[in-house]
Amino acid sequence: MRAKLASVSGSNTDFIPLDATLIHADGSFSGYASLFNVADMGNDIIAPGVFAASLAKRGPRGIKLLYQHRASEPIGVWTTLREDARGLYAEGVLTTANTRARDILALLKSGAIDGLSIGFRASRGSRSSKSAPRILTEVDLWEISIVTFPMLPGARVTSVKTAPRAQIPLTTPARRLAALTSAIRSNT
C-alpha cells in the first residue's frame, strides 16, 4: 500500500508505510534515513553525495542511533549506512537488553512509529533566494534517530526483525506475567 503526503513545496511525496508482515527474527531494521532531492518540512534538500565525508570519517558505528534525537537515549547501533540512488540507506540493530529499545521495537512492530531523522551540522549548502530551499551539498552527520514525526516524511523504517520469543528476557513484563501464570496453573 502506498500513501501520499504533501511536501512543503505542495508536490506529493510517496512513502511506503512499514509492512508488519516483514517481521522476522533478530531485532534489526532497515530503511531510508534521508532521501535525495526532496524538500523536507524545513525547506532543506539533501543533494547526492552529501554524506560521503561523514561516512568515510566515522563509519556506521560512529554515527549514533538515538530515540527522538535525545543524546541521553542511545538505543542501538548502525551496521550499514550507505548512499544509493534514492538516499541514505540505513540498517541498524536495536540493543534489546535496553528497556527503551525493547519498547521502541514493539512500537516499530505495531506500526505506531516508523520515522527516521538525521542529526547533522550543515558544512556546505546554498540558496538561490531567501524563499528558495536550501540545497545541502555536505553535512557532518552525527546521529540518526527513530522518531514519531520525521522532518522528511519519506524517511521511514521499511523492515523490522524481532527477537524470537525464546530470546526475550524474563525481565520483560510479558515474560514475568507468563512465568507467574504458568506457576499459578501448575499449583492448581
- Shape estimate: elongated
> What's the helical proportion of residues?
10-25%
What's the SSE pattern? EEEEHEEEHEEEH
User: What's the CATH topology label?
Assistant: Serine Protease, Human Cytomegalovirus Protease, Chain A
How much of the sequence is in beta strands? Answer: 35-45%
At a glance:
The protein is of the alpha+beta class and 188 residues long. The chain is 18% helix and 40% strand. It starts with a strand and ends with a helix.
Structural description of this entry:
The chain is built from 3 helices and 10 strands; from the N terminus they run ββββαβββαβββα. The chain is 18% helix and 40% strand. Strand 1 and strand 2 (12-15) form a beta hairpin. The longest helix has 14 residues, at 173-186. Strands 3, 4, 5, 6, 7, 8, 9 and 10 form an 8-stranded mixed beta sheet that branches. With 188 residues, it is an alpha+beta fold. It is elongated. Mean pLDDT is 81; it is low at 1-25 and 164-170. It has a single domain (3-186), classed as Serine Protease, Human Cytomegalovirus Protease, Chain A, CATH 3.20.16.
